Amino acid sequence: MKKHALFLTLLALCATVSFAQGPTSIETPDYSFTHFDRNHLVFPGDSVAMELFFDKLDSLFFTGQGHINIMHIGGSHVQAGVFSQQMRDNLLNLFPGITAGRGLVFPYMKTNTPASYSISYTGEWEYFRNALPFETRMGLAGASTTTSDTEASFSIVTREKNPRDITPVFDFNLVKILGYGSLTPVVHFNNKIIEGSYSKEEGSYTFQLPDYTDSLYVDFNHQSGTFTVTGVYLDNGMPGITYHGIGINGAKVESYLKCADLKRDLRLVNPDLVIFGIGINDAAADSFTKEKFVNDYSRLIDTILEVNPKCALLFVTNNDSYKKISKKKYEVNPNGAVAQQAFMELGKKHHGAVWDFFDIMGGLRSMQDWENEGIAQKDKVHFTSAGYALIGDLLFNALMEKYTEHLKRKNK
Length: 412
Known about the structure:
This protein is α+β, with helices and mostly antiparallel strands. It has two domains: 42-100 and 240-412, 3-Layer(aba) Sandwich (Rossmann fold); 101-237, Jelly Rolls (Sandwich). It contains eleven helices and 20 strands. Strands 3, 5, 6, 8, 11, 12 and 14 form a seven-stranded antiparallel sheet that branches. Helix 1 (3-16) runs antiparallel to helix 11 (385-411), helix 4 runs parallel beside helix 11 (385-411) and helix 7 (290-307) packs parallel to helix 8. The two termini are 17 Å apart.
């Protein structure tokens, strides 16, 4: 099939995907307080990097070859996993067979875990996150968990299923355990112990499994000592899209900047597109200033671009939110509008796209309307699962709108 015919085929495919037709195609109640008609990506600067990202999508869709890494980084909105999972599922359903691996995950043992995988563990573990004071080394995942228990172990099961198939999407045969300590982790597979090879450059133990699996069991052979896990990377070597959801409850931009192994882990992920969703916790502080916010973000962006200078950037403005001032009293947080301006500055300065969710959701005080509709929580900061799924659909829709425009230009 000729290339131009492939473009037309994919355009026709996009037309069959409900979320890719335009904002009005999303089946939702008539939320009169929202601005869904403004659901677009805007480019305060140029769109060169995004076009390069779209070119990679073309190659993947038309040849079935290639591997694209998308990294979605934020706070509790991302750790919850629903927003990023909706984006991931929509992308994987756009074209059959683009599975790739699950990517970087973290074994959250004492807090909420994204629904796309489950964690269980034995023994005593101490958990640290970058949003609070810490003294351990952390990486991109923004967390660490440490054990000195001879009975310590943990398991990961990738539960997410493809809506079109009962087979798990994220089978893997390659595991990297990021961490450090005097203990040496081992992986159990079909009643056999698999020993890993250590890479000082990556700070990881790599395990090549003899077959694909959707579950992982790790322990330390009852040795004495300590070990700190800072992330787990799951891969299968298949072409497709890996969507890494990096989120820590309470994290600010500076929280990630304090992680000593941030750049090292970024090299492992090597993102082609970064979706920035950090900011709601920054703007919650009374001391919040646009200048510091932009400066902190610029430092983080510089680190990412050192790893991949051609990485596309997509900024998600903060949602509207309220501050709790007494047991049953809340007041609107005006910093949402200030952060909105900051993201526009960042988009222009770093040639990124901006998805102005603050405006799309209805602007200042709209969070109360979302709560009244049952799509935001009573804390007036977070959303319900239905709300996060809606947000994921809206962002996917806006991204696909730009991608469809890209295809049309290519087809001329």
